[in-house]
Design goal:
With about 325 residues, this protein is of the alpha/beta class. It folds into two domains: about 230 residues, Aldolase class I (TIM Barrel), CATH 3.20.20.70; about 70 residues, Orthogonal Bundle (Non-ribosomal Peptide Synthetase Peptidyl Carrier Protein, Chain A), CATH 1.10.1200. It is about 45% helix and about 10% strand. It has an eight-stranded parallel β-barrel, surrounded by seven helices. Helix 6 packs parallel to helix 7 and helix 11 packs across helix 12. The N and C termini lie far apart (about 45 Å).
């Protein structure tokens, strides 16, 4: 089971992103070269109670492979039952969230607060491992705070408890998503364990992934916020890691086609009304850095439905395609 990371086609993975990494988002990332994707974190209590919203997170398909289903909770028995359910729903591996710093998760005793209780970490991993036949991975942070950096200790406990790999977000829980990730923590974890280590934090360009692997010797990289509106980042990482130039940025036309494909899948998956509301954030991310993006973003908030949004999007990209120059990094002239 510890070969799970080594068997992947490449080293670029998609992180579990709350409220974002649904099935359409994962499929778009995979189409751009993502080797392994995770669901957004799923409440173990919600799964066991079989709440409809929680069960929705488990939706997958044949093209969504390999898939890690990430669960969070603080009760070993409940986590074990949730893992069994995830296994039955088609997970290829079970990931245990031990790094989420969000207050509503931490208040339940789950997420990053588990870093304060190594014994409970051991109990949860052991219970989940006994419950399923799948590989188990965990995702942690550097520690709870700058005064309690214990990623190495937790990684050793996880290894001893039988996990197949460990992902390390190189920030402390009290940092949230601010400040700079300290990749030295990833290197320290890699030096301390024999299982594969996945590095996470501050990867926004293909060169960042190459630098992280070089500096930490991690076995793979996990992309989170860097993939928002930028799924082709996976292609660039794969190009660099295979010794090729990172010629990964799409043309204006290609970018527009990806947006339309993603939006269509999201509408089919979520329903028209939900997609109308939720896809606006993706439109903002996809157009970040392009000419006129600020004006386009302001208009999005004033438009009531998909038809009006689509009309504005068409108009915006028509304008980009007929222009002579665009300000997005690496895009100097539109190619049709």
């Amino acid at each position: 089971m510890s070969d799970i990371i080594k068997k992947l086609q490449n080293k670029a993975l998609l992180a579990p992103l709350a409220g974002i990494s649904n099935l359409p988002f994962r499929l778009i990332a995979r189409s751009c070269g993502c080797a392994l994707a995770y669901t957004e974190m799923i409440s173990a209590n919600g799964l066991v109670r079989q709440t409809q919203k929680t069960l929705e997170y488990l939706k997958t398909g044949e093209a969504d492979r390999p898939l890690g289903m990430q669960i969070f909770g603080a009760d070993p028995a409940v986590m074990a039952e949730a893992a069994r359910m995830a296994q039955d729903m088609g997970a290829d591996l079970i990931d245990i969230n031990m790094g989420c710093p969000v207050k509503k998760v931490v208040r339940t005793g789950a997420g990053a607060v588990l870093l304060k209780d190594p014994r409970l970490i051991c109990d949860i991993i052991s219970a989940v491992k006994k419950a399923v036949a799948l590989p188990i991975t965990v995702k942690i942070r550097s520690g709870w705070s700058g005064k309690s950096i214990n990623a190495v200790e937790v990684a050793r406990i996880a290894e001893e408890s039988g996990v197949a790999a460990i992902a390390v977000h190189a920030r402390t829980a009290d940092q949230g998503y601010s400040g700079k990730a300290d990749w030295r923590i990833i290197a320290a974890v890699k030096n301390a364990v024999k299982i594969p280590v996945i590095g996470n934090g501050d990867i926004h360009l293909p060169q960042d992934a190459l630098a992280m692997i070089s500096q930490t010797a991690c076995d793979a990289v996990m992309i989170g916020r860097g993939a928002l509106g930028n799924p082709w980042l996976f292609a660039g990482i794969n190009q660099l890691l295979n010794g090729r130039p990172a010629d990964f940025l799409p043309t204006i036309t290609q970018r527009y086609e990806i947006i339309k494909k993603h939006w269509e899948m999201d509408t089919e998956y979520c329903g028209l009304r939900t997609a109308e509301r939720n896809f606006r954030k993706h439109l903002i991310w996809y157009t970040k850095g392009l000419d006129g993006a600020c004006s386009f973003r302001q208009k999005l908030g004033q438009l009531p439905n998909k038809d009006s949004l689509q009309k504005e999007l068409d108009s915006y990209f028509t304008g980009l395609l007929t222009g002579k120059k665009h300000s997005a990094a690496g895009i100097v002239s539109p190619q049709q």
